[in-house]
Amino acid sequence: MAPTTIRTALQAAAINVSFTGSGTLVQGQTGATFTITVGNRAGSSLTSGAVAVTVTLAAGLTPVSISGAGWNCSGATCSRSDPLPSGSSYPAINLVADVASNAASPLLSTASVALTRQAVATATVQTEVCAPDVACPMINPGGGVPVYSASGTIQPGSWVSVYGTGLAAAEALWDGSFLTSLGGVSVIIDSKPAYLWYVSPNQINLQAPDDSVTGTVNITVTTAGKSTSSLANLGPYGPSFSLFNARYPAAIVPTPGSPGNSGGGYDIIGPPAAFPFPSRPVKVGETVVLYGVGFGPTSPVTPAGQIVTSPAPSVVQLQVSIGDVPASVQFAGITEAGLFQFNVMVPEVASGLQAMVANISTQNNVYITVQ
After folding, report:
1. What is the percent of the chain where pLDDT is above 70?
2. What superfamily in CATH does domain 4-130 come from?
3. E-strand spans in 212-349?
């Protein structure tokens, strides 16, 4: 059951507050997340004086941390004194709490906001609690990451993996039509529906929706009427090379007029016998094709949830080195929805495994085999 947010105005005032939770919780769960947002109603005057938010958690929830950009937080209270224009909101307050092993459903928690020490609004969030032995969706801490990566930042429009338990009843795969519901599962990122590629009990692959927001946002997975949320970090970059395994990139060399070792018109690059399919080392001077996600903006922009009809070059020049030698990047940009392609000429390096590094990627221990 998704969390229910209830707002109550205590008196006519410009300030309002919302309080949202982590969806269905599990007894004994650590790191449950809640978000509190304070806004100033449209058409009202500029606020003046101190704004204070006080959180009262339900019995069964123990606070771990509370923070927000520009907020001064201590204990269960956060405050600030900068004026808030009409129709806008302060940066969100993020609260993390642990769930008691005997917590009883439902849990009712409140957030109250005061302006110059006078209460003006309150919000209540209701969350359901499951026993550990009941099928309950749960996102792992830090479970929303770029595909093939453990990076903590995801780029809007990029392909993302969400890891956890009970995320879906069974495996289901998209038909290429950018579904927002697949196998009874839906995912919301920063209040916007994501496009689902693959769902399973322990992993969901999706394309993040377009978003101008940067910073901490909620990812909410809903399955079989139950929801779970976690925090993720949105940024203009969330780079990750596509990999055949934990060490070797998904790399190919086109073979025009020949089926290649793949049978599809290209050779797969990698150490011989490293994969359950044929592969070979790349040669110095050959142009190898690499793939990845989250390598930043393109021109033109490629909207999420749509087929890409023509390549969109990267705005920022990608720099790649192989074996500490700069390589010539002949093309870098999006060629399919959310998928970057890089055409890279292999420089003069010694034979064997050579580390591959890009200037806007944080992946380490990625190697390409050179002959």
Report:
1. 96
2. ntegrin, alpha v. Chain A, domain 4 (2.60.40.1530)
3. 215-223, 226-234, 240-241, 251-254, 266-269, 287-293, 312-313, 320-322, 325-336, 339-345
